[in-house]
Specification:
heterodimer, B: 17 helices
């Protein structure tokens, strides 16, 4: 029994040891105060090149048109929507950590919330590429991308969940950004006060909006933070719910199923947590934050991963069972086709990565092993990407009429754009760690041992 | 690892509680008996309502016991016993299921072999929907629930005298194992007893719909009991607004969760407009059932939502007690809405429908009184108890 050391009579602090408030500032601000290392430049070179591949692919797409993609009849939705859903999903962990865990008074969230929120914003930016470029010539389509009075009854089609997506994702992005920014203000002020160069002083002064750490400021700040947390929570649920509606309101077998909304939300949190866990493992090591982002944080994240992974597994099982139970031959065919048809390799990749490997997190040894959890985290993200691929492609490639079946093969440009979105995401992450504090300095100080009023 | 002694004085529950329990049980049983005498089928459908509500209380309460261990929550430790006592109703559940097990043929269309033979869809389902497998499954559910009830409460009780933290660790393990069991058993329980009443209809979210209501119902009953006990000093000193606030928040969360699941199911079926799914909702939108549908939105979502929205009302014991009873009734209406349209296509509501809710309320009360006579109302040996009492938002 490996847990025998835990004493349940005392509250365990969210940070390891008893670091002083000053040392917290030092260690968190170190990456901002110092010059970037060689490793960082190498990282940026790699992610920048990936971004370059993406820019080239998108340029080629704009030059030739969406014909350079693999989508065609009958698979009219391919990489673009797969990647869109994938990236929106990645973003969900950030809001879950920053808003929902805040409402649930989980103190351990303080160490990871800032980073996760930043990743939310970057992930949504990556996601937004896809609806934008799928129009082929977005500058011509600009007028159609925005809702306008609907005399034509075509686009904007207010009864289409694709339009609800526009509202949901843009609202979500705005609120997430404001939430993130509000949380940053006290830290901006801290950086302003520490700034050694004139440029930094001016920049951080502007961003800190005149924050003076006064009592009144803190009172307003706490209220605003709580209200925004309250707003973000239904928003984050609505976003992936509406993304699931894109599929589930249709009558396509394999898409139309009532469990989609909660299943998509759980899947989004699942993949998002895996991504945050992966990036944090590298960050905490690289910037010496192991006492602030402790093994307990990572273990807790892994517990969320095994929970959401099990919910996803439950949904897979329920879909399969009800497909059989419904007695509907089309439903039954779709699920057999997923498991045994031409895309069976994608299906089994999804099942292995999402349902089998994360279950190892039931074991404490695996949950607290850095290398083990990193690998499983990667598997989860691979699996969740394939999940969207399986849902989108298998259902479309073999629909009602066998004579109109087809096979979808993504092209190099498809892959190029996807690689570009990964490049964009990690480039933004690398820039973020250099200019903003990756952990909220003010929040961490509030959970240090001794910071809370003692009742004994 | 020493625990400080929490001052706790065990008191017997007032005789009025026992009197209420006995009265409700007797009155409920009498109405049930009369219903069975005059309209046997109607009695059976009502029996399913009673069964599904009681299962929500019993298994839902066990879910909260396990959830506390798994999440490491401390605020709920001082009243975890209330949940444990409520989950003791798993035994009553078996009794309530007996009349149904003897009369499956009368309520379930899929048991009519001549009809199944003529219907290719039902014939396709018969490997799952047949009396033998149905019986085996449901016995297995009961055995699993009773097993986990016995284990989780046994080690909790042992801790009262030994104060050994070992039992917390053991119970964390049992709780871990219980969670997947809970999800699967309640899902298939709902599919078996409720969804298969309309054997052609299907919805993948149905299990989630049922257990979202289960979370709400068990917590609502527990909230009513916890606040009532605390106001009269049956629990330990020091429990107050911060604990009430947490109960209220959790009720608010699950109110929203239920509404979200209910809306998802309705929205997707309404929008896709596939006849093999929509008829289930259409049956609940004519011949008087539409009023029940509307009442359900009002009772199970709007009222709890607005009552619990503000911070002061989450801390108000009186409001919490009211909403506790209200949500229990709303969940009963929900089960009535799911089940009774299969008995009659036009609205039926009469004295016959009062029998099982009364009986269930009586059985819950009597079980609680019975447990409270023998055991402490507070887990006095739990290592998290002092932290739970000290809990502040």
């Amino acid at each position: 029994m490996s847990t025998s050391a835990i004493d349940y009579t005392i509250d365990h602090p969210a940070v390891a040891g008893t670091p002083s408030a000053a040392s917290i500032d030092e260690v968190i601000a170190a990456p901002i105060d110092s010059k970037p290392s060689k490793g960082w430049w190498i990282g940026l070179a790699i992610t920048g090149s990936m971004l370059g591949v993406g820019i080239l692919s998108i340029s080629w797409l704009f030059y030739k048109g969406t014909g350079v993609w693999g989508v065609n009849q009958p698979v009219g939705w391919g990489f673009d929507i797969v990647n869109f859903v994938f990236w929106v999903g990645i973003g969900h962990a950030g809001t879950l950590i920053s808003a929902i865990l805040f409402l649930l008074r989980q103190k351990w969230r303080t160490g990871i919330a800032r980073f996760a929120e930043a990743m939310t914003i970057f992930a949504v930016m990556c996601a937004l590429i896809f609806p934008l470029i799928h129009t082929g010539r977005p500058w011509l389509a600009a007028v159609y991308l925005f809702p306008y009075p609907n005399q034509h009854g075509l686009w904007v089609n207010f009864t289409s969940p694709l339009l609800w997506d526009v509202f949901a994702v843009s609202t979500y992005f705005t609120v997430s950004f404001v939430f993130w920014y509000i949380g940053l203000i006290p830290d901006f002020a801290m950086l302003r006060d520490r700034a050694t160069t004139k440029f930094k002083k001016i920049a951080y002064s502007i961003f800190s909006l005149g924050w003076r750490h006064s009592n009144r400021h803190w009172q307003h700040y706490e209220k605003a933070y709580l209200i925004l947390a309250g707003f973000s929570t239904p928003l984050v649920l609505s976003v992936h719910t509406i993304v699931s509606f894109d599929f589930a309101v249709s009558v396509i077998p394999g898409w139309h199923t009532t469990i989609f909304p909660p299943y998509f939300v759980a899947g989004a949190v699942f993949s998002g947590f895996a991504m945050v866990q992966n990036v944090l493992i590298v960050t905490r090591k690289y910037f010496n934050l192991e006492h602030i982002i402790t093994i307990n944080h990572l273990e807790n994240m892994n517990k969320v991963i095994v929970l959401t992974g099990s919910i996803v597994g439950y949904a897979y099982a329920m879909e399969f069972f009800i497909a059989w139970y419904s007695g509907n031959p089309l439903e039954q065919f779709v699920f057999l086709n997923r498991a045994l048809g031409p895309y069976a390799w994608a299906y089994w990749t999804m099942v292995t990565c999402n349902v089998v490997f994360p279950q190892l997190f039931w074991i404490k040894k695996v949950r607290t092993n850095i290398i083990g959890m990193f690998i499983i985290g990667v598997f989860v993200n691979v699996g969740m990407w394939f999940e969207r691929f399986v849902i989108v492609v298998t259902s479309l490639s073999r629909d009602f009429l066998p004579s109109s079946w087809g096979h979808y093969v993504p092209t190099a440009v498809d892959f190029g754009v996807f690689i570009g979105s990964i490049g964009l995401f990690f480039t933004l992450v690398l820039l973020f760690v250099r200019v903003l504090p990756v952990v909220s300095m003010s929040e961490i100080k509030a959970v240090l041992p001794g910071a809370q009023p003692s009742r004994h | 690892m020493s625990t400080t002694q929490v001052p706790y004085q065990r008191k017997d529950l007032p005789a009025s509680v026992t009197a209420f329990g006995a009265g409700a049980t007797a009155a409920g049983a009498a109405i049930v008996a009369l219903t069975f005498m005059f309209d046997h089928s109607r009695g059976l459908y009502n029996n399913i309502i009673g069964l599904s509500v009681l299962a929500s209380v019993a298994v839902g309460a066990l879910f909260y016991v396990a959830l506390e261990y798994l999440a490491g929550a401390v605020w709920s430790t001082p009243f975890r016993r209330v949940m444990e006592f409520l989950s003791a109703t798993v035994f009553a559940l078996v009794v309530v299921a007996l009349p149904l097990m003897a009369n499956l043929h009368e309520v379930f269309h899929w048991t009519h072999m001549e009809a199944v033979a003529k219907d290719p869809i039902l014939a396709g389902k018969s490997p799952y929907l047949n009396i033998q497998f149905f019986t085996i499954r449901n016995i297995a559910f009961a055995v699993l629930w009773i097993f986990f009830y016995a284990m989780l409460t046994r080690f909790s009780r042992k801790q009262d005298t030994t104060r050994d933290q070992k039992y917390t660790r053991i119970n964390i393990r049992f709780s871990t194992a219980f969670m997947p069991v809970f999800a699967l058993t309640t899902t298939f329980f709902a599919i078996d007893w409720i969804m298969s009443l309309e054997p052609h209809w299907f919805s993948t979210i149905f299990g989630v719909y049922y257990f979202s209501g289960t979370f709400l119902c068990a917590l609502a009953v527990a909230t009513f009991i916890i606040v009532s006990l605390n106001e009269r000093g049956y629990l330990v000193a020091g429990l107050g607004k911060d604990h009430y606030y947490s109960l209220g928040t959790l009720l608010f969360v699950f109110t929203n969760f239920w509404a979200y699941i209910a809306f998802s199911q309705f929205m997707l079926i309404w929008y896709a407009n596939v006849p093999e799914e929509t008829y289930w909702f259409i049956a609940r939108w004519k011949n008087g059932w539409e009023y029940v549908s509307l009442a359900l939105i009002f009772m199970k979502f709007l009222v709890p939502y607005f009552v619990l929205l503000s911070q002061p009302s989450k801390m108000d014991g009186r409001k919490l007690k009211f909403i506790g009873i209200w949500i229990f009734l709303a969940h009963t209406v929900d089960m009535y809405w799911l089940i009774m349209p299969n008995f009659s296509r036009s609205l039926v509501l009469g004295w016959q429908e009062l029998g099982f809710p009364l009986l269930i309320a009586g059985l819950i009360t009597l079980t609680f009184v019975f447990k409270a006579r023998k055991e402490n109302l507070v887990p006095i040996g739990d290592p998290k108890l002092q932290r739970g009492i000290d809990f502040k938002i």
